[in-house]
Amino acid sequence: MAKFAKGFMVGAATAAHQVEGNNIHSDYWIQENIEHTSFVEPSGEAVDHYNRYEEDIKLMAKAGLNTYRFSIEWARIQPKPDQWDEAEIEHYRKVIDCCYANGIKPIATMMHFTSPAWVITKGGWENPEVTEWFAAYCKKVVEALGDKLEYVCTINEANMRLQLAAIIEGMMKRMQAPKEESKAAAPKESDVQVGLNMSTDMQSMMQGMMEQAKAFGVADPRSIHTFVSQCTPEGDILVMKAHQAAKAAMKEACPHLKIGLTLSIHDTQAYPGGEARAAKEWDDEFSHYLPYIKDDDFLGVQSYSRKRFNADGVAPAEPGERTTQMGYEDYPMAIAHVVRRVAEEFKGDLIVTENGIATADDKRRCEFIEEATDGIAACVADGIPVKGYMYWSLLDNFEWQKGFSMTFGLIAVDRSTQTRYPKESLKVLGAMAEK
Length: 435
Fold this sequence. Notes:
Layout: E1 9-13, H1 16-19, H2 27-32, H3 49-63, E2 67-71, H4 74-77, H5 86-101, E3 105-111, H6 117-121, H7 130-145, E4 151-155, H8 160-176, H9 202-216, H10 233-253, E5 258-260, E6 262-264, E7 267-270, H11 275-285, H12 290-293, E8 298-302, E9 306-310, E10 313-314, H13 334-345, E11 349-354, H14 362-381, E12 386-392, E13 411-414, E14 419-422, H15 424-430
Parallel strand pairs: 1-2, 1-12, 2-3, 3-4, 4-5, 6-8, 7-9, 8-11, 11-12
Antiparallel strand pairs: 9-10, 13-14
Helix pairs in contact: 3-15, 7-10, 13-14, 14-15
């Protein structure tokens, strides 16, 4: 018996840069390929989803999934400020058509972390003009493809910049601190739900920054503001303004579209004495964005784990606590807890746009999916307007600075041949959708 009723979206998610390969006009491509990079390996041809999307979509459909959330790559569509690549727009038309041909509903994300390199050269995500650039790109895409879409996410994890700012600031303080100082409160890669590599030493980091400046054609490396980099408070809100501008532009072109963004939110919990810190974390990750998203058609909720706080900040792991490859706690209940709490403040439709586990043990992945979706099914039963659940990710892929070592996927890939190997977890998820 299916866990979710007919019409509920059960699917998987990917991001263009992480699966397509050869995203040569993007900011990430530059960062990965400098000599002193913080990436453990470059993305290269990734898992060649650009050429193998039809095979991957058919595997989804065969397993019973009914929805595919993927991203459209801005750097492919607009490789230069004055250049639009119509052939790339046509490529994404084919991806969408392939979805429909296989009974899969497409959900498009317009920006999943990567930007065209020229955007960064022009000041990136601290330049107020980015709102106009992003809106123009979004309008261009939906003018061509919007009639084939229902749901569109403007920006993936639009709150990620502020989270990373705190991590990077803490990392810099740790690197500059005397060796004898305590590192008990040092930030960890696992404090943020994205593939981060904090093992780079200060000298290599500085060399890398200078190499990036040269590659982007800017004089001062401090002027490099990718989406996934340190930001100012103004830069944090600039993302919300870009979202609003893009939404308005797309609604003008295609009024029928349901448009929202996605947020990365931890299940924040407090030990006695940690209540104030936990409350601040919730506000940083969610509440202070509400004025900018309250009128959106839906909100994409993304959560992988919890953060517990004591009087000193993020509490250390408890003895025997099970963790994922990413280093954070294996805690499948997080997503339902977050959905319930978000629904108290955001009065609109919700879609779980990402939730998953990085593990080499697919049996545990199956268990995680069962436990997480039990929580979502309970939310639906309680009247919370959850419209879908997207597992992250469809394929074992390029997990940003951590490279290909993190295995989130429902489908394994032998990258020497790009052969696909569906896992049992793909069937487990597919069985939850009412046919």
